[in-house]
Each structure stands twice: as C-alpha cells, then as structure tokens.
C-alpha cells in the first residue's frame, strides 16, 4: 500500500502532477480473492495553511501509521484540496477501529467522517 496524495504539486513541488480519475472510479471494491473491502473517510481540518515541509512530514506520519497494518490496508488516498483521507482495508472485526485509532495517534487532527445514529427515530 502506498498513500496517494492528490495535489502533490502544492505539497511536494512535483512539476508533473496530473489530475487523476474520480475517487469512486479508483477505489477497489474487492480484493484479489473477490472478497468485499471495507472503507472509511477522515477529514483533516486546517492543513491548507501549512508549509510544504510541515505537510510532507505530516503525510509521512499518516503513511507510516497505515503501513503498520501491512497488507490489511489495500488503498489509501489523501486529497489535499478537500483535506480528505480515504482508506480501504480488508474486512476483519475491529480493524477499522484499530486503523482510526492509529491514524488519530499519529495525526490527532484527523476526524472520522460518519453518520451519527438518530436514537430518537422509531425502528
């Protein structure tokens, strides 16, 4: 797994950066054995104003946190323009929570994007 960073030109000074396909077209839905993958999204508020060196160091921390999980993490994409991190991983009970905890430990500003259940709604 390699963390893909979109808008790398703004981060790393890469002169040959090109726009990629939309995320929904690039995200894998199944692993090599045909099993469905799980995924989640995290937002990183306040990164746009950081210096390129600080941002590059932050991305190294995020990538290192993901690499600790080895082949369990199948895909990771960070969109700097939207400050969004997308992670697709193999299905295993508790893995999503472990990944989020590791990412929050490495980069505390990351916030999980999710839906808060409406506890007042009738089932």
Describe this structure in words.
The chain is an alpha+beta fold. It has one domain: Alpha-Beta Plaits (2-Layer Sandwich). Helix content is 30%, strand content 23%. The protein has 4 helices and 5 strands, in the order βααβαββαβ. A 5-stranded mixed beta sheet has the order 1-3-4-2-5, with helices on one face. Helix 3 runs antiparallel to helix 4. The longest helix is centred in the middle third of the chain and has 16 residues. The termini are far apart. The relative contact order is 0.24.
Descriptive labels:
4 helices; 5-stranded mixed sheet; alpha+beta; 123 residues; Alpha-Beta Plaits
Secondary structure elements and pairings:
Layout: E1 3-6, H1 8-12, H2 23-26, E2 37-43, H3 52-67, E3 73-79, E4 84-90, H4 95-106, E5 111-113
Parallel strand pairs: 1-3
Antiparallel strand pairs: 2-4, 2-5, 3-4
Helix pairs in contact: 3-4
What is this structure, in a nutshell?
This protein is α+β, with helices and mostly antiparallel strands and 123 residues long. It has four helices and five strands; from the N terminus they run E-H-H-E-H-E-E-H-E.
């Amino acid at each position: 797994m390699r963390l893909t960073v979109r808008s790398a030109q703004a981060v790393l000074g890469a002169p040959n950066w090109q726009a990629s396909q939309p995320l929904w077209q690039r995200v894998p839905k199944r692993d090599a054995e045909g099993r469905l993958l799980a995924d989640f999204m995290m937002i990183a508020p306040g990164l746009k104003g950081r210096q390129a060196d600080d941002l590059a160091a932050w991305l190294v921390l995020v990538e290192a946190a993901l690499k600790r999980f080895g082949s369990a993490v199948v895909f990771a994409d960070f969109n700097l323009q939207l400050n969004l991190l997308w992670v697709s991983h193999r299905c295993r009970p508790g893995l999503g929570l472990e990944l989020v905890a590791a990412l929050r430990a490495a980069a505390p500003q990351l916030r999980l994007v999710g839906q808060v259940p409406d506890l007042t709604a009738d089932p």
